[in-house]
Amino acid sequence: xxxxxxxxxxxxxxxxxxxxxxxxxxxxxxxxxxxxxxxxxxxxxxxxxxxxxxxxxxxxxxxxxxxxxxxxxxxxxxxxxxxxxxxxxxxxxxxxxxxxxxxxxxxxxxxxxxxxxxxxxxxxxxxxxxxxxxxxxxxxxxxxxxxxxxxxxxxxxxxxxxxxxxxxxxxxxxxxxxxxxxxxxxxxxxxxxxxxxxxxxxxxxxxxxxxxxxxxxxxxxxxxxxxxxxxxxxxxxxxxxxxxxxxxxxxxxxxxxxxxxxxxxxxxxxxxxxxxxxxxxxxxxxxxxxxxxxxxxxxxxxxxxxxxxxxxxxxxxxxxxxxxxxxxxxxxxxxxxxxxxxxxxxxxxxxxxxxxxxxxxxxxxxxxx
Amino acid sequence: xxxxxxxxxxxxxxxxxxxxxxxxxxxxxxxxxxxxxxxxxxxxxxxxxxxxxxxxxxxxxxxxxxxxxxxxxxxxxxxxxxxxxxxxxxxxxxxxxxxxxxxxxxxxxxxxxxxxxxxxxxxxxxxxxxxxxxxxxxxxxxxxxxxxxxxxxxxxxxxxxxxxxxxxxxxxxxxxxxxxxxxxxxxxxxxxxxxxxxxxxxxxxxxxxxxxxxxxxxxxxxxxxxxxxxxxxxxxxxxxxxxxxxxxxxxxxxxxxxxxxxxxxxxxxxxxxxxxxxxxxxxxxxxxxxxxxxxxxxxxxxxxxxxxxxxxxxxxxxxxxxxxxxxxxxxxx
Lengths: 369, 333
What we know:
The structure holds two protein chains of two kinds. By secondary structure, chain A is α+β, with helices and mostly antiparallel strands.
């Protein structure tokens, strides 16, 4: 088992712009680290640099105490699992799992022990004689995981391993991988574009965009205190609402104004905005859909944080209702209790929970804290 | 077909004893020894009387002797048969001649079958990756993997997938790449073209697959797998002489070359074109604010005088940026 240390890692192809820009991070031993971000953000390139499948243009990479920049992929003591869960189609499950060890000339008895142990962990010991064609998608993915487990590597690298599974299986395998991490007590670096996977699986999440680490933190910290507008918009579904507007001081209270919307900012947040000279400036106001309420108690307790809008679409999800609203030039999404009997075309009064709102600098888009 | 390692070892021992080939240092192989040389190679060689080209450095002792024996046996049979490998190389590298078909058919290559040619370029003189590729495709391969002037051809016979099913072929290629990555082999480039139905098309298909690898590496060094249906533009632009490329870039982008902003614009414009020049959709796909995208497009217009919100301008600029991307990589080489 080992941690990973990224020391100002950079990656570029030829003279082209950097694909990964100054990736600097310590991953402690046994951590489940998730790299998340949109397509092309550099997350897979980063993973492939750990694996040795991409050369590092600049910086140092350590696995444990060993600098591995110039170590061949097969000598890095890592195991990888990919989204295609590729298996040798003509070999049975046992041989598929044993193949890597055979290539490395492990003794037959050791191979047998490791394959059977891994199969038991993954609950596929009854499938060892089957060929991949006779397995379901989930079972094949387990075999792919088994191929990695038998190597007993220092670090597991997983590149979108659940992307090819259907939604139900994905949820199930998500839990399985988390359990596996606890059982194996090893370091896992997991790449995904799916923020739900990131939030539910990672001890820590690295949100990447444009080759740059936007934020590294626990899922809760990222959700509650996003570092910038990108992180705020990327994590959370439905996504956070953003309104551009101006901060105006009026009778010792601070207001955020955007067209017909005028909302009073709580004193705690107002103090920070004043201290950083944002009065009279344009800022971005962010609020998550679940922090917009239609209950009377909220409307009465926060009369200066309400707005009226027309419902464009109401999506009933059972336990909750997604309201897609238009207010002036703004599109706003609210997630209210499922028992609300709101319908499309109806005018509705809603209140922002201002203690949960966020402000971002309009130019840099960095969170104002 | 021999399936069991122990049985194979027993047979190897018997043959070696019969031939008197076991040296005093190697009495026999112990059952349970893993045979580095895949049994399929051996049985294939025995059944098809073809030449083995397994890397000898990776095997030693009786197995090496056994393989040497097979090669000797097969070299003898090659005098009786036309040289299969050289014939295939000829078919791949020379324009079609009716004689090829007849000769290949004699050797079991039916012109009725559909073949999926997969080309792989590997920067690994030891060829340690061979058993992985051979085991991955196993019985689907027509004969052995062939080294065609630095490009290894994996010809798949009786390809069971629908010839039109490109997604399935993409999965096959990505699967092979993943398997190789898993085993730590990184220095390879793969190209997959559409399946061919006739031996007549082998030459052009092989040529196309080679060009895809060259063009793919030239324009997209960050990628390792290329499919013919995803790279038509790259294949066309690759043939353009460098001076003409530079002149086109200067005409479209102006005098300024090698601007890091171009790299960002290339990705932006690629998505912008894919989204039919729709600003909101492009911004959503790129995870940037709509205003950021508009700022980027305006900045580009101010620097080059080209307004990419106009369809044909966007396409010309995309071509110029793709050529510029290739030249940047080429300059490095």
